[in-house]
Design goal:
Belongs to the glutathione peroxidase family. It comes from Nocardia jiangxiensis. Keywords: Oxidoreductase, Peroxidase. With 178 residues, this protein is of the alpha+beta class. The protein has five helices and six strands, in the order E-E-E-H-E-H-H-H-E-E-H. It has a four-stranded mixed sheet with strand order 4-3-5-6, sandwiched between helices. It has a two-stranded antiparallel sheet with strand order 1-2. The radius of gyration is 15 Å and the shape is globular.
């Protein structure tokens, strides 16, 4: 399987097939407007500006499963992203990334790249350990701004936890774009 076999819901409520991204490098990120990692929107947009002409796509998926940090409606989220960070990459409709109602795309992403989340994640690990200990040792998305890097073939290359910034993964993305 690949991400190209999935479809998602846009912020306008329309179904959108991910096969439109075949042949492109894709970074999929679960996002939130009221998170300590929210400023990553700026870095994600900068990365998108640098790479979109070379077949980079960044796809944002708002999620309110972590500390109620994405309480807005889809329309409010779109306005927030544009007004505060000038986001031009697609930000889709709000979804769940974990649990029985998880979007099938994220169930697939988690299975393909379960992550290597442990004490090396520093303060984020301590936070998750204190607030979501049941998530430790699982493939669950641990927090907002977890990133899944997908190759041109639609297969998941790697997962990056929330504390890993877009700047820190730029070289790996560049390698896929070349």
């Amino acid at each position: 399987m690949t991400i190209h076999e999935y479809s998602v819901i846009t912020a306008d409520g329309e179904r959108h097939s991910l096969d439109t991204y075949a042949g492109r490098v894709v970074l999929i990120v679960n996002v939130a407007s009221k998170c300590g990692f929210t400023p990553q929107y700026e870095s994600l947009e900068a990365l998108y500006d640098k790479g979109r002409d070379r077949s980079l796509e960044i796809l944002g998926f708002p999620c309110n499963q972590f500390g109620d940090q994405e309480p807005g409606t889809d329309a409010e989220i779109q306005e927030f992203c544009l007004a505060n960070y000038g986001v031009t990459f697609p930000v889709f409709g709000k979804i769940e990334v974990n649990g029985p109602d998880a979007d099938p795309l994220f169930t697939y992403l988690r299975a393909e790249a379960p992550g290597d989340f442990g004490p090396a994640a520093g303060p984020l690990y301590e936070h998750v350990k204190a607030t979501r200990p049941e998530a430790l040792g699982t493939d669950e998305v641990k927090w907002n701004f977890t990133k899944f890097l997908v190759g041109r073939d639609g297969k998941v290359v790697r997962r990056f936890e929330s504390s890993v910034t877009p700047e820190q993964i730029e070289a790996e993305i560049e390698d896929l774009l070349d």
